[in-house]
Amino acid sequence: MGLETIIGLEIHVELDTKSKIFCSCSTEFGAKPNENTCPICIGLPGTLPVLNEEVVNLAIKAGTALNCNINMINKTDRKNYFYPDLPKAYQISQYDMPICTGGWIEIESGGKTKKVGITRIHIEEDAGKLIHLEDEPFTLVDYNRTGVPLIEIVTEPDLRSSEEAVAFLKALKSILEYAEISDCRMEQGSLRCDANISVREIGQKDFNTKVEIKNLNSFKEVAKALEKEERRQKELYNFGEGHKIKQETRKWDAGKGRTVSMRSKEDAHDYRYFPEPDLPPVTIKEELINKIKKTLPELASEKAKRFSQEYKLNEKDIDILISSKEIADYFETVVSLGSEPKEASNWITVELLRVMKQTEVIPVKAEQLAGLIKLVDKGTISRSAAKEVFDELVSSDKDPEEIVKKRGLSQISSSDQLEEIIDSVLNQNSQAVEDYKNGKGKAIGFLIGQIMKETKGKANPNIAREILLEKLK
């Protein structure tokens, strides 16, 4: 019999709060090292934590969006381990009474729909960040991230391939972004993934020894790491050396293209969990859950259906537009400013996303793009000229019309002016005129090209074609 792969994910999601989970320090990314710290989050003796209410609200929101049961009574626990980026030598987390349990997400992979179970969602504080300097005998630590609020989302071992794992992460990221639970910026560590992977004989019910791959922060790295670890484990089993697979934590070495052993994997008892003595149990009322349910916005799947019905867009365009809430909202703003939906979609999916490969933010205001589309619709500028204007808008706050005037990009739409130019072109290209009369259709394309050349691309092509055909008659 063959081997099958079993994958379960543990996803750490940074919650979109202004302050940390147990103190009032800012969660702002990019601050100077150790700037956003206080005695509470760096664990000085005698300090007491106070639970941030918004953390509980966002965890309930996440549980609701992910079809979980919200536990009306839950508690926090101390997870004890020593590491230099954990100043208290313990992390406040949740162990046996998490805030959410038993959810699911539907994913699409390989042309099939699959329901992936979610075991639990619990709240916890983040640790700091160690900076290892090359060729230096010391390590620096930045405690700004210490105490930043997280939810950890733990899946059932329902995933069977790296493709399914990536499909799950993409679906989860979309839900969390749309529900405004987290900004999910993977490059900033707002969404990080640990993957547990094992292999077993097809038909076998028991799980074999699993390996955990730590801190994967891009879809590409998740896929590569899981594929390499899957290959490593299957090769060991096929050569009768399955016993060499140990329960351990491994890291993904992107440079070498393989997973590397870090340490043996701890079991829950190794962390000596016990109830957090400085915080009371968290009691949630039904009224709060109902109130939060009502704040859930339109999610990506619902938006896709509406975009199809309301804007008559094709499936490919919709998939691109809804892949990011920011892009979807931007599209609707451009349309609300008077742009035809298909035109707005074309400019966003082609030109805007081309530019956004080099930048993290949307570089052109919705008002600017709507104004540019209007100039094309009115025939003020050609599409090729509009692309020039768009490229200037990327680094400018100017109005598109202002750029058009400054650069002299307006189309020639005046019939009188175009007639003069066309007469001149016809006089200079009598052979093409004869070819047209003799039924050679390509002559039209040649003459239009000459008109565009004569006007340096500024002739309105539709009006020019109409006048040309009338004169050729």
**Global morphology:** elongated
Tally of individual domains: 3
Strand order of the largest sheet: 2-6-7-10-1-11-12-13-14
Low-confidence stretches: none
How far apart, in Å, are the first and last alpha carbons?
Answer: 77 Å
Which class of secondary structure composition applies to the elements? alpha+beta
Beta percentage is 15-25%
Radius of gyration: 30 Å
Tell me how many strands there are: 16
- The residue fraction in helices comes out at 25-40%
Specify the oligomeric state.
Answer: single chain
Residue-averaged pLDDT, rounded? 91
Count of individual helical segments: 15
Main beta sheet strand tally, sense and closure: 9 strands, mixed
Give an overview of the whole structure:
With 473 residues, the protein is an alpha+beta fold. The protein has three domains: 3-287, no CATH class; 298-407, no CATH class; 415-472, Arc Repressor Mutant, subunit A, CATH 1.10.10.410. It has 15 helices and 16 strands. The strands form four sheets. A nine-stranded mixed sheet has the order 2-6-7-10-1-11-12-13-14. Strands 5-4-15 form a three-stranded antiparallel sheet, with no helix packed on it. Strands 3-16 form a two-stranded antiparallel sheet. Helix 1 packs across helix 4, helix 2 (162-178) packs antiparallel against helix 3 (219-238) and helix 7 crosses helix 9. The protein is elongated. The model has no long low-confidence stretch (mean pLDDT 91).
